[in-house]
Amino acid sequence: MTSDSVVESVAAPSPKSFPLGRLARREALAGYLAIAPWLLGFLIFELGPLLTSLYLSFTKFDVLTNPQWVGLKNWDKMLFNDRLVWHSLKVTAIYSVGAVSLGLVLGLGLALLLNQKVRGLSFYRTVFYTPAVVSGAAVAMMWLLLLNPEVGVINRILALVGIEGPAWLFDRQWALPAFIIMSVWGVGGGMVLYLAALQGVPTELYDAAMIDGAGAWPKLWFVTLPMISPVIFFNLVMGIIGSFQVFTSAYIMTKGGPANATYFFVLGIYLNAFEFLKMGYASALAWMLALIILVLTLVAFRSSGRWVHYEGQIR
Amino acid sequence: MTESAFSKPGPALVSARRQNTNARRVRLISQLLVHLLLIVGGIGVLIPFFWMVSSSLKPDWEIFQIPPAWIPEEPLWQNYAIVLTGHRPDAEGSRAGQGWSFMRFVWNTTYVTAWVLIGRLLTASLAAYGFARLRFPGRNALFIIMLTTMMVPSHVTMIPIYFIFKTLKTLDTYWPLVLPVWFGGGAFFIFLLRQFINSIPSDYDDAARIDGCGWFGVYWRIILPMAKPALGAVAIFSFMATWNDFMGPLIYISTMSKYTVAIGLHFFRNNASPAARPLWNLTMAASVVAMAPPLLLFFFAQRYYIQGVVVSGLKG
User: Fold this and answer.
1) Which residue, of A259, B145, B193, B205, is most buried by count of CB atoms within 10 Å of its CB?
2) How many CB pairs under 8 A join A and B?
């Protein structure tokens, strides 16, 4: 699902002849019936809650009593008087930069290695993809043990080569890097997409590049990367959005600690809403998250014209 | 000299051959290097799984043993029996893990996952069919609205939806986890299915229409059977997402007998140990139980799985 397929699908043939004849009316009725569940769901579980949470973001609401209108107080506190908000944005951004860039470099690197006509390709692909299949609580438990300073295997392996490993999740400096390492373990998810894109690059282009005397690096830089740039772009956007929604691992493994070193943004929303029962403030935070994601997505799409190459697109 | 002059390679040919063997050697070395990198990376990927399984089979003391054993001296299968049933066979031993039956949690999760799956497959495919095949006023506008909802993070709607289910007095039931999915199943899945349905030639619909099929008949007899690969991808992703969902059950489920595997694991780790000491071996056994269904599905349906990933652009 690259952005050009979105555009193409939006521009699908539009219904023409209205007002409708009898058959067309029947078809329209069937159409409304078919999308009725979604449309109802959109009103009840999307639009309604979206507006409600916007309203709640201007109220003080502790669940026990009715929401009280407080104007811009929550927004004011969130933007100017709550250092934890900016801290959690910083934590999330650092994680995002680390996890997304490593995911790009390592995922693409692995895909390039696998694309060298290696034997046992499907075996390797299965191995590297496996971490992407599991997620959530069980993975968090596994990493809690792996990263444990006393009994975890990571520090044991580091000790074998003479390095005294840090306390990871118990250390302010190392807790966030530990989360990035966890994300690197799952690069196989992106790798599969890159690999599929690499296999879709027409070989004529490589032949032409070879006739022009291009070596391995120019081929990579001028043929491969431009051709798969839509997939890189897609992975980057999804990766950034995904990293702004980290919750399960943070909640289970550190609950934001130590000293708020892993206080991810969504964790803050959840804690404010369901543990501190500050539903109004949590709603404001959630709206901020939505706006951040919206802006990031728009910026990504605006910038994509400059470096993403869509084959078959007329410039 | 037994060789004739003709079979004797000339100097040019010799150097060409040498170059050839050189190139071959370079290629061999680079292949070896590629495999070396892949094997090292692969081991790095698999060690965490291995350590988890190995720890799940150790007795408590062996977890803390230094140097650690990669493979437990004697695999303690009893750990799995304890977490699955919630009963400890060793009566005089500790009471750790007593009453925490992951069999129960697995069943609960299966139940929720199945209802979510059915609802999503039915209503998402229906909406996708409407958007792909049926003409009605406002279709494109509604479709664009649907696409934009994909950008809204679920955390924005989470709080009001919580109050919907609180008002309906369905907190601590599975309704909040299942019901919203029955209303369209999510914009992303509708989009995925609609793209696929668009690629089915509409001649089939026309033929069925001429044979007297109604609109619903076309959906049920033509579109659904032909969209099986896309429905398979939706089913797989839906299964994974619901099985691993943590925040939903965390918000809505509070009675232990209703826990799903994900929150069961979390509360097990926090509450099951009477000594307030981590029960690493039991926690790892429970984690293996929680991971097993997605892993098994992946290994058995791998081809469809990776196809689905590539088609949809979802990383899983």
Assistant:
1) B193
2) 294
C-beta of residue A123 within 8 angstroms of C-beta of residue A234: no
Angle at B310 between CA B131 and CA A6, to 5 degrees: 35
Please write the tens of the pLDDT for every residue from A178-213: 999 999 999 988 898 898 889 888 888 888 988 988
**Does A6 score more than 70 pLDDT?**
no
Query: Cα-flanking dihedrals φ and ψ of residue A59, to 5°?
Result: -125, 165
**DSSP code string of chain B:** --S-TTTSPPHHHHHHHHHHHHHHHHHHHHHHHHHHHHHHHHHHHHHHHHHHHHHHTS-HHHHT-SSPPSS-SS--THHHHHHHHS--S-TTS--TTTT--HHHHHHHHHHHHHHHHHHHHHHHHHHHHHHHH---TTHHHHHHHHHHHTTS-HHHHHHHHHHHHHHTT-TTSSHHHHGGGGTTS-HHHHHHHHHHHHTS-THHHHHHHHTT--HHHIIIIIIHHHTHHHHHHHHHHHHHHHHH--HHHHHH--SGGG--HHHHHHHHHHHS-TTSS--HHHHHHHHHHHHHHHHHHHHHTHHHHHHHHHHH----
In Å, what is the CA distance from A234 to each residue of A71, A300, B277? 38, 9, 44
A73 by DSSP, 3-state: which?
Answer: helix
- Span B9-18, pLDDT tens digits: 566 666 666 6
Which of B136, B291, B305 is opposite residue A32, by nearest beta carbon? Answer: B136
Residues in chain A closer than 8 A to B108 (CB atoms):
none
Q: How confident is the model at residue B72 (pLDDT cuts 50, 70, 90)?
A: confident
Contact B104, B267 (CB under 8 A): no
User: Rounded mean pLDDT of B192-217?
Assistant: 89
Q: Which fold has domain A75-307?
A: MetI-like fold (1.10.3720)
Residues in chain B with CB shorter than 8 Å from the CB of A156 are 67-68
CB A241 within 8 A of CB A297: yes
Mean pLDDT of chain A: 87
| Farthest CA pair distance, chain A | 81
Please, which pLDDT band fits residue A21 given cuts at 50, 70 and 90?
Answer: confident
Q: For position A2, what pLDDT does the model report?
A: 43
Distance CA(A148)–CA(A153), nearest Å, equals 8
- Which residues in chain A are classed under CATH 1.10.3720.10? 75-307
The whole-chain average pLDDT of chain B stands at 86
Non-local (6+) Cβ contacts of A257 within 8 A are A175
